Structures are given as structure tokens and as C-alpha cells.
């Protein structure tokens, strides 16, 4: 049965360790390994041992992943994530148990490498630099704080306010993650965020056609008859005495005969026998694009004596606050 290689990147070291523990508890043995963020937990499996040896050096991180079949651009994002304090999880499972392993991994919210790569590029990142130093714990913590959005960022802001701005009359409730103590003249805002879908177009090259014309020479043989003239001069003896001697026999004379030969003359004529037409046809098709959009839902927990309920915040409820 074939094995599948699984790779996931986590911002938090604790999340990666929890995933590793659950995978091993689920019977995956020592087929998984984590590295980065100042930690490493390896397995005895030979291929993982070899991978750990190569990935421990910043200069061979990308090549260690590409040898597993990871595309170059994804390998650079994984390596950059580890350099910035992330923790990488790598392992192998057989095909029949891939879904089970992925369910465990997804439960702890691994990084979406496409979104993270876009985030890196917005700050000027163009690719993994093996000569750049790894982040220390302080820098890595600051880096992770930049990824928070929506309610996570708002909650972080509320924690900061209650930590630095607590007055003598402020109190903290015993419910984890719940704080009180906002002054009468202050307000805290939780943003309600909703995404909208915008579909655009981009040109994608799918292939090309190259037409080249060139000249081919073909030998041609034709037969032609040529005339060749030759003038012959000969002497003939006269044996008869009864020869009439002309009256001008003793006059000087000159006879000139011209020899004419024929030679072959080659002439060529060209004519169009065929045309090759290069034309681009354009066809349009309508395509339905499907995706998901997110929105923030806020629940209000009323702890008043006249109404002790938890319900979603609607437009009507906002008039009660």
C-alpha cells in the first residue's frame, strides 16, 4: 500500500506538539516529526532521521522538502515559516488512513501557506533566504501577533487595555477569557466583519503554436538536345586531265565559315501552389466561480435579572445596549 507524505506548519509550538501526541496516540507510531521554534521531536524511522539531519541546517531546508516532492515555492514558504518561529510537522501514513490523520491535523488550525505567502510578500519578501538568521522567541512572538485579524485582534486589544488601564474599582470575573472593568466614560469596540466576493480575470498562457517557413532545395534533371557545328577542310586529288580550269583560277580569294554551337540555358519561374494561414480564434464561455465568504457573528450574553439568555446580536438587540 502506498504512503502519503503530510506536511503542516503551525505558529504555536504547543499546537504542533499536541498534534504529534494525538497522532501517536492514534497508532501512527514514530512516523511523524516536528522541528522549529526552538524544538525538535524526531522518530526512529530512517527517512525521518535523514530528513531531520538535512532540515536542521537553514541552507538545506528547501532542498530537504523538495526531495519529498514538495513544489519549490511551497518549500520556500514552509522554510520561511520555520525561520520566523513556526513549527513544522512532517510524517507519512498509508493511503487508507490519510483522512484520519488529516482530521487530527486540521483540528489544531495549521497555517494556510497560500495566505501566509501573500502576507510575507506584502512586507517585501521575495523568497527564502538561507543566510538570514532565525527569529528568536521575542521576535517570533511579535511576528505572530501581526497575523491576528477580526475578533482575535479585538480580543488581544481588550486584554491589553484591561492589563494596563485597570483602576481600583475594576474587577476580573472568574470565567476564562471574560473581563469586566470598562469605565462609565469608556467603550470598547468589537468589529463585526463581513467578506464579499469579487471575481476578476487574468490572462493565463495555456500553450503556443509556432509556424516556421524554410527553403528546401530539390535536385531536378531535364534532357535537352544541343547542336554542335564543325567546319572540316580537306584536300582531294584530281586524277582526270579533262578538268575545266576556271578563268579566275589564279586570283586570290578568302572563304570564311563560322562554326555555331548550342549551350543549355536554365531559367526558373516561381508560382504560389499553397497558402498556410495562421489565425487565432477566440471563444467565450461562462464559468461559475464558487467560494466561501466569512462574516463575524457576535453573541450577547444577557446576565440581567429580567432576561438571562444568550442570543445572536441583531439590529433590534443593538438598541438595548
Keyword list:
two-stranded antiparallel ribbon, single chain, alpha+beta, 321 residues, rod-shaped
Walk me through this protein's architecture.
The protein has 321 residues and is of the alpha+beta class. It has a domain at 3-122. It contains 8 helices and 6 strands, in the order E-H-E-E-H-H-H-E-H-H-H-H-E-E. It has helices spanning 13-28, 46-55, 61-66, 72-83, 98-106, 113-122, 137-145, 150-164; strands at residues 3-10, 32-36, 39-41, 87-94, 299-301, 310-312. A 4-stranded antiparallel sheet has the order 1-4-2-3, with helices on both faces. Strand 5 and strand 6 form a beta hairpin. Helix 4 (72-83) packs across helix 6 (113-122). It is rod-shaped. Residues 149-181 and 316-321 have low confidence and may be disordered.
Oligomer: single chain
Major sheet size, sense and barrel closure: 4 strands, antiparallel
Taking the alpha carbons of the first and last residues, their distance comes to 60 Å
The helix/strand series, from N terminus to C terminus, equals EHEEHHHEHHHHEE
> Which of globular, elongated, flat, extended, rod-shaped describes the shape?
rod-shaped
Low-confidence stretches: 149-181, 316-321
Beta-strand level of the residues, as a percent range?
Answer: 5-15%
Task: Tell me, rounded to a whole number, the average pLDDT.
Answer: 77
- Helix content class: 25-40%
How large is the radius of gyration? 46 Å
Spatial arrangement of strands, main beta sheet: 1-4-2-3
